[in-house]
Design brief:
This protein has helices at 2-27, 35-52, 61-85, 90-110, 112-115, 133-159, 162-172, 174-179, 184-210, 221-227. Helix 1 (2-27) packs parallel to helix 6 (133-159), helix 2 (35-52) crosses helix 9 (184-210) and helix 3 packs antiparallel against helix 9. 75% of the residues lie in helices and 0% in strands.
Length: 228
């Protein structure tokens, strides 16, 4: 059923975002309230590159190039935002990340030539064609589920590694971890950048399923769903 496929896709998407947020908020205590900003930045970067750029090759290479660029852009944005908020308290991190998410929504709305603004942007599609739309959507659901499983395995491995224990130490008592010679600033910066890049990749995958990008999807509800 098409409705069931769409619903399961949204569940998989939220699970993927929640797993990445777990590394930032659950372990390192970085209160990232801008999940939708990195997710949306990845989605719109993918959409603009996929629709506006005249690529010399077609799918699936076009999709892979655009998705890689979306992941990179979201990761670099996470690196910059993480650098700005690394030394702030919890309230400062909340405000800073929420401000970033708001900035992404404003840019998506005002940059009509690139994003279509409030009208939205169409022209996206699946990087394959196996038949009817419902069949393509089901295969994309399976591919997305595989990506989310890969994210789960990565988070599971980090959680039980020395690096994961360092994240827990930074989140539990950062001054103590710093006094033991640990680079807490670099640790927080890395986990924030990697997590943000993953959120951007999920945003790109959401753009494929949506096939039409709408700024209305960049609401705070995405962040709240991941937190819940």
């Amino acid at each position: 059923d098409a409705f069931l496929i769409t619903g399961l896709f949204q569940v998989a998407m939220v699970i993927g975002l929640a797993l990445l947020l777990h590394l930032q908020l659950g372990l390192a205590r970085i209160a990232n309230f801008g999940v939708v900003g990195f997710w949306g930045l990845g989605m719109y970067t993918f959409g603009v590159l996929y629709v506006k750029v005249d690529w010399p090759f077609g799918d699936p290479w076009q999709f892979l190039a655009c998705a890689a660029a979306a992941t990179l852009v979201a990761g670099v944005a996470g690196l910059l935002v993480g650098w700005l908020i690394a030394d702030l308290d919890t309230d400062g991190v909340l405000v800073g990340t929420l401000g970033f998410a708001t900035a992404v929504q404003i840019l998506a709305t005002t940059q009509d030539d690139l994003t279509g603004g409030a009208r939205g942007m169409g022209g996206l599609g699946f990087p394959y064609d196996i038949g009817r739309v419902k069949e393509n959507e089901f295969l994309w659901l399976v591919i997305t589920a595989v990506v989310v499983v890969a994210i789960f395995l990565y988070v599971w491995r980090v959680h039980r590694s020395p690096y994961g224990r360092l994240l827990i130490a930074v989140g539990g008592n950062e001054p103590l971890a710093r006094s033991l010679g640990k680079s807490t600033f670099r640790t927080k910066l890395w986990v924030f950048a990697v997590g943000s890049g993953g959120m951007g990749l999920l945003g790109a995958m959401n753009g494929v399923m949506a096939r039409y990008l709408d700024v209305g999807s960049l609401g705070v509800g995405v962040t709240l769903a991941a937190m819940v």
